[in-house]
Amino acid sequence: MSRTPTRAFHGERTNAALSWVTVAVAIAVGAWALGEGLVHEVLFAATAVTIALVPAIALESTRAALPWEVTAAAIAALVAALAAPDLWSRQVVLYGGAGVLALALTLELNALTEVRLERWLAVAFVAMLAAAIAATWATLTWVQDGIAGTDVIATNAEVMWLLIAATTVGLFAGVCFDLYYRQFPGEELVSAPVDGVDEELFAVKADIDGAPSLEERLPLSGSVQGWAVHAMRVAMAAMIAYGVLTVDTGIVTNVGAMLAITFVPTLLRRRYDLPFDAGLVLWITLVVFLHALGSAYIYERSFWWHNVTHPLSATLVGAVGYVAIRTLDEHRDEIHLPPELIPSFVVLFVISAGVFWEIGEFAQDAIAAATGLQMPLAQHGLDDTMTDIVFNTIGGTITALWGLPYLTELTDDITDSLEGWRVLEYGSSTASDAGDGGSSDSSEAESTD
Fold this sequence. Notes:
The protein contains 19 helices and no strands.
């Protein structure tokens, strides 16, 4: 009987032997790179070996391994980098290999944990992981450059093309991942429908049960919080007026968008009766107000203002990621993320969203340079990009560790209000039926092994 992805994890001898050979190659190349001071090769080898060892450690068996083709593809990028003619070429090859490493991690999550992903989400997940891995490597290299006085990553354009390479290959690897699994009807990503975790049970498992609202935790009364929101809205309206008088379209566009965002909680509360307490509204308004202030005046005059606004805005992005995964988990039988892994997903969501944002800014810079048009977003050099990524990660971590309790009631109400929404239920029953069939086929196949 032909080997399937699940069989590889459960201990096929040939697959394990080939996988261990590729791990040995990675260790050898990594050790040589360490002696030569090749930063990216060392980071890649360390990441690849760590990922490859996870099945053996988790299942306590040397025969448990990734499909050897996946491990070999990752190591192929490492070996190919050694043959590259210059530093830049080596970096592009290695960062492209981040997409294969992300694919390997996604396979392991599916096989070794309770995580269940629909195919479209698995493809997106691989791309997000690739972006996060690349951002981590770039950050470590940037820090090493600063400490050692080297210039392994010399310019902003270099780091942006490396992030683009990783994300593109990650997306491609995710699509290949999907096509690969289609060859094995009994080996669906979703082996069986997984019900979303009940709201009360989720709160207990995630240790966020009975937490006070943000409005109650702040040392200000609800009315004072409301007046602070109104004051910031008036200030943003004044910025827009200034932009109109000075014919500054950048201020009008950016601040206008920020002002509109401050009214979204009010509209959602009135339209869907969602529990946006005064503390949450104040948090959202403060974040966009500081961004508006930066766009109108401070960003061009003070570099450090980015370091204030990015972690704050990252907390909002993390909140969006949390609400999204909880909603999908609740309404899609084929999607499940255990409560204990939710914080990690929030951080991943923020880091990858930050990378996609930086790529968008980079693209707008290219358009502005080619056309002479003034774009609403722009980058300001390598240090700007890297500190953005660092502080985005800090903001996402803050949300993951301390912010989720303040979002629980809101998230529960959102999932309840979306009950029966066709977009969320589309194709779910069909996929569930396929999953049931896949589960039985898989069990039968393993019993004959």
